[in-house]
Specification:
CATH topology: Rossmann fold
CATH superfamily: P-loop containing nucleotide triphosphate hydrolases
Number of helices: 8
Strand content: 15-25%
Distance between the termini: 44 Å
Number of strands: 7
CATH architecture: 3-Layer(aba) Sandwich
Radius of gyration: 17 Å
Oligomer: single chain
CATH class: Alpha Beta
Helix content: 40-55%
Largest sheet: 7 strands, parallel
Low-confidence stretches: none
Mean pLDDT: 95
Length: 220
């Protein structure tokens, strides 16, 4: 019976997610669902990305946290883009209905890129579609290279895996080749980016890729 209840919840969520996806496609918006464990560097990654995007691309951010508006306030102050905060009040993930409600507070006609920072968690967010066009998982080298083995579902569902804090590699026992090999075994089409938040290393390749994908969406 419990399995049926969970399936029903996911089915209802998927219906709303599909409606979200159709809306985003209609508006020509590339939506990125960013997932990671707490402290992996989601907000820092978003900020570094926003600051490097071409001026002609307009962005917005939906921030998901259990409590507080710290991250949304930081995005607004440092990147000067529209940001909306969702507080789950204890929930371990965002769902499609939350995103649908949040979008009513955004001027979607003025958005090319929508970043959704999911709640810090490597389990729950993987099961809930939001209507996103791209799933991105951030893993910092400080977390260890065994995360894909312990949490296979979230890495298997990722379109992009960003390996963050790579400037720490000389000081940490992290097998980069093994990390990528395990994830590629789940999903051979996954794309990897390695970035350094402190000095911006690796962001040029990411921005080039992101701009190309965004322009493809806009041209449809």
């Amino acid at each position: 019976m419990k399995v049926k209840i969970v399936q029903n919840i996911l089915s209802l969520n998927d219906e709303v997610a599909l409606a979200n996806q159709l809306l985003f496609q209609q508006k020509g918006i590339l939506v990125i669902n960013i997932m990671a464990s707490p402290g992996a560097g989601k907000t820092t990654f978003i900020l570094n990305t926003l600051k490097r995007l071409p001026a002609q691309l307009k962005s917005a951010v939906i921030e998901g946290d259990i409590a507080s508006s710290i991250d949304a306030d930081k995005i607004k102050k440092e990147a000067r883009v529209e940001a909306f905060q969702i507080n789950t009040g204890g929930g371990c993930h965002l769902d499609a209905n939350m995103i649908s409600s949040a979008c009513r507070h955004l001027v979607l006609e003025q958005v090319d890129l929508l970043f959704i920072e999911n709640v810090g968690n490597l389990v729950c967010p993987a099961a809930f579609k939001l209507g996103e066009g791209m799933r991105l998982v951030i893993a910092s080298v400080a977390e260890g290279d065994d995360k894909p083995i312990k949490y296979p579902q979230i890495f298997a569902s990722a379109d992009i895996v960003v390996i963050s804090k790579t400037d720490l590699l000389p000081y940490i026992n992290f097998n980069l080749a093994s990390f990528k090999r395990v994830i590629s075994g789940y999903n051979p089409k996954v794309v990897f980016f390695e970035v350094e938040a402190t000095n911006g290393g690796g962001f040029d390749a990411w921005i080039e890729y992101l701009v190309e994908r965004t322009l493809q969406i806009r041209s449809k």
